[in-house]
Amino acid sequence: MKTVSKVLPLILITSMVCYGQKKILSKVLTTNSSTVLNMDFKKVRVEILKSSDQNIYIDFEMDFKNYPKNEETAILEGIDTDIATYGNTYTFRIDSEQPIKKRAYSIDSPFGISIDDLMNSGEQPKRKYRKSEAELIEMIDKNDDSDAFLKSLKTYNADGSEEPVDLESLKSYGATIIVKVPETIPLSFNLYESNLIFKYDAQNSIRCQGEDSSVRGGRFANEGSIFRLNNGSFDALEVNGGRFRLKDLSTILIGSLRNVVIDSEFSTFKIGLLRSNVKIRDFNSTFWLYNFDKNIGELLIDSEYSKINLFLPQDKKNYVITTYGYGTVHYINGNKMEVRPSRSKESTTMVVVGSKGSTTTNRIKFNTINGIIRMGDDFIEELN
Fold first, then answer.
1. Are residues 325 and 344 in contact, defined by beta-carbon separation less than 8 angstroms?
2. What is the DSSP letter of 167?
């Protein structure tokens, strides 16, 4: 094995090529009205699908290409799986010493790897435009073109010349882990350095605790669901119900949001459409709020040291946006207004946008301390 500086290991590829499947686990579990499924995953990628009946189906397969037998054996021996039953509760566990992805490649280049073509040397634009709910959903749905990424890499030769990576000569391994569940049973997840992908619109009651993990879903629709994620990311086409505790998430992409309570810290949100019955309490995160439903009712966001970027409702007749607090800088369509810190630490009304009349049904409230609020109609200048 070459030194770290000469090896680019485990480049993730979304395409799945079969080079001789190895069945790791295949199981069918019967359920009843009291069944609960607990899942404990470490360093794996798992897809959750809807079962066609009331059974739970678990399938885990792997394949290897250009791997020496001893290295293949070492990877397989580093994977521990278990299904335990206690009363009406099943516990399915996978513990892997190495990250098990859909496809992982290992590049061994004695003279280094060129990634110059992948680097963006230009400055990122400061002007951000409004996105629709559909555009957010498209961002969530699209697959990264990791094949193109790999093909764009070049290896250096001894004389300093470059040549494309020979894909056929690479060592690679891949895994498919699928769990099919009835949507009537409660699900519980404990994730560590794992990727969890929901391939259906989940109405199950979900308890999900994740560390250094990503959760990606279609639509989550259960008011009893609870997500607690620390580091990683969260994507969903729609969230309708539940409580979320999110800390240090690099990206949170949500097409539309309703009936939720969110406590967050040090994370980055992009929300396509805010609907009714949403409460957010945040510390030092960044929000991009693109659209508000015409029947949003009352929205409350409490924040401290947060950066809130919101696009004003396109039809302003039935909306009023009010900011409370102190120590906050406002940018409204490029105009700056600063509310100084309060010695008494008492919140006061800072800015009102819209008509605050008795017939105004949509009331959007931001109680913010020591933050930045940017408002724009069509675009927002991302300035400090």
1. no
2. G
